[in-house]
Amino acid sequence: MFCSLRRDSRISKNRHLEATEAMIKLHCLGAGAGVTAIYNGEPSSSWALSMRGKPFFLADLGVGVCKSALKHLGCIPSTIFVSHNHSDHAAELPVVLAVEGLQRKRLMQVVAAPEVLSRLQSHRMHELQSSGHQIDDFARWVDAPEEATIELETDVNTMKLTAHRSRHSETCFGAFLELGGLRIGWTADSGFSQGLLDRLSRNSQLLIVDARAVGGPEHASFQDIVEYVSSKPDLDFLGVRPEQSQCQVAVIGYGAQSESPSSEDLPSSAVLRPGDVIEFCEDTLRPYRCTATTSNCGSRVLLCGWCQ
Q1: 8 Å CB contact between 232 and 204
Q2: In this record, what's one Pfam family (predicted)?
Q3: Residue partners of 201: CB distance under 8 A and separation at least 6
Q4: Max CA-CA distance within the chain?
Q5: Which domains does the chain have, with CATH numbers?
Q6: Contacts by 142-148 with C-beta closer than 8 Å and gap 24+?
Q7: Considering the entire predicted model, what is its pTM?
Q8: Residue of 36, 193, 171, 247 whose CA lies nearest to 46
Q9: Rg of the chain over all Cα atoms, to the nearest angstrom
Q10: How would you write 214-251 as a 3-class SS string?
Q11: Is residue 93 within 8 Å of residue 82, measured between CB atoms?
């Protein structure tokens, strides 16, 4: 009986490991604003998705993101969605495509709304004209028209993406992602827009929003987001009511870590920091864990009690 119990325990443990490997994970690679990487040395706002330990989707590739992706993911995902052409969201695209797509012969694909895609090709990629290669030699360029759902073939799955226009000085688009039953909304850089937040949160399990201490036409404020979430009975911040809320909200894009929201501004569990990982429970698809890889003293820590 003792040996049987040990065997069952081992099988259970192996099944648990297999289930954990199959989970989709969201990795925060950076939360920086326009000046953050240059003046503070911290990565620009970006996040990625992985499945069975393999990264397959990257949201934005601004200053400092490549190094952060190599640190936390081990590679650059081959499918890259670019929200807009500002340097803190697209600056590293030419170098990464030159290395990954041209030198290493990886099949990279860049996804963006048509207006953004044309800016990236004509302006952002201009520095690579001297290479003598055509724009299609570096990557496959995929149009994601506004409000139109497209299917994307990634390294591990087929996903659906719908681009939604945000409020920003540069033409900018957030996205709504569908992976089987999992749905994730992301505003990208945006001033407060209830319509945008409503569209993205309506069927999402997780909504990632851009917000800063002081809001304006291009970025929502922490208070804007608090008031919006408080007005919606089916929304709450990540980790506050994980079993009750239909959609949980997390904040990114606030700037350097010294500018991150305090616990008086937002629940700490809802603030994404470089290295944080959100896992989605397989049976409910709820985002149920938010961890930080290191604390200030270098040890692994949990951001909130419900993660345990």
Answers
A1: no
A2: Anti-Pycsar_Apyc1
A3: 185, 207, 232, 235, 247, 249
A4: 72
A5: 22-307 (3.60.15.10)
A6: 142/109, 142/110, 142/111, 142/112, 142/117, 143/112, 143/113, 143/114, 143/117, 144/81, 144/111, 144/112, 144/113, 144/114, 144/173, 144/175, 145/113, 145/114, 146/113, 146/173
A7: 0.88
A8: 36
A9: 19
A10: CCCCCCEEHHHHHHHHHCCCCEEECCCCCCCCCEEEEE
A11: yes
Residue (of 42, 29, 43) closest to 275 by Cα position:
29
Residue 222 exposure: Cα atoms within 13 Å on the Cβ side: 17
Q: How many residues does the chain have?
A: 308
Q: What is the dihedral of CA 199, 166, 69, 109, to 10 degrees?
A: 90
27-60 CB burial, b ≥16 within 10 A, e <16: bbbbbbbbebbeebebbbbbbbbbbeebbbbbbb
- pLDDT tens, residue order, the chain (308 aa): 223 233 333 334 444 434 444 589 999 999 999 999 999 999 999 999 999 899 999 999 999 999 999 999 999 999 999 999 999 999 999 999 999 999 999 999 999 999 999 999 999 999 999 999 999 999 999 999 999 999 999 999 999 999 999 999 999 999 999 998 999 999 999 999 999 999 999 999 999 999 999 999 999 999 999 999 999 999 999 989 877 889 999 999 999 999 999 999 999 999 999 999 999 876 667 786 666 544 333 333 333 333 33
